[in-house]
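Board work, copied verbatim: VWA domain-containing protein
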Amino acid sequence: MTFEPIFPVWLLIAVAVVLIGVRMAALYRVLVRTGPGRYRPVVLRWSGLTVAVLLLVVAAARPSLTPDTGNGPPPPTPASSAANFNVFFVIDRSADERVEDLAPQTSRMAGIRDDIAALADQFPRARFAMIGFATKAAQDWPLSDDVWSLKPRVAGLSTYTETPLEAMYAVDSGAAQNILHDKLTQARTDFPGSKNLVFYLGSGAGGSRADQTPFDIGKDLIAGGAVLGYGTPEGGPIPQQYVDGNLIYMADQQTKAPLNSSIDEATLKGIADQLGVPYFHRDKGQPITPVIPAVDPGHPADDNPVVASQTIERTELYWLFTILASALIAVEVFLGIRDVRRARSTQRDVVV
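↓ predict structure ↓
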């Protein structure tokens, strides 16, 4: 069993000591007012709530099980394999990603969401950031190791909703160039010795008529990553909205014909070359393992430290301790409510 505490160990120990002290003082005060013969139920209730509090402290230490490697060398722990990585997701949130050509009735954005979630699982304890773009770019999630909050944010990720009818003509596949460069530089300053990984997810703005901004980012800022492409060469119409239960598609303002969006792999491969990372075309249900390389955290960033892919699995156990603590707290709440009802019933009997 290994531990990856969310707070420093000394702080968790200090909290546990303080909590035990407070609970001991509470026990003393209760026993003083308890009559002979009733000590046992009082101590049992005190023990249950005390254990529940300590279980929460243990859960905060994030106990986990790691795989047995047999006689071979032990795998790197998550702390050494992913704790000092900054993972940046650059996400195409244009109307193009609404097209349902990833699979029948499955949009490109659905594939993007699935891949981001899978990528996040590959780097336990890394820091993550999301940058969304269409015609312009904006930071959707600041660089943080708060994966607990990131996952529901990813699950609700969608394309931009307020877009003009011909929005696909103005998409800039390189709109995130400036903000990505700034955030990569800031991450290196804020977290000395960390490695930046960049994953670009989109379809290449195949129907755009706007000038495409190239990515001009120093290779020393990027230690690895990938460009992931979604969609088919045939493409499909771009959904706009539902009207009276019917799906309306975006249409050309002159010809009134539905706008068709297809993947532009030439643009995506160009972006991969600019970022110095490989390109992968993605289909529904594909595993993420072939996409993501492991990165040697001790290797100099400017030496392209990409090594063979290796996923380090940890079986988290914090949920088990929180469930046990919740059960004990629920019992105490039930007993407390029962005591209050009994006291009120006794009070009414006395008044009568």
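Residues 78-307 form a domain with the Rossmann fold fold (CATH 3.40.50.410).
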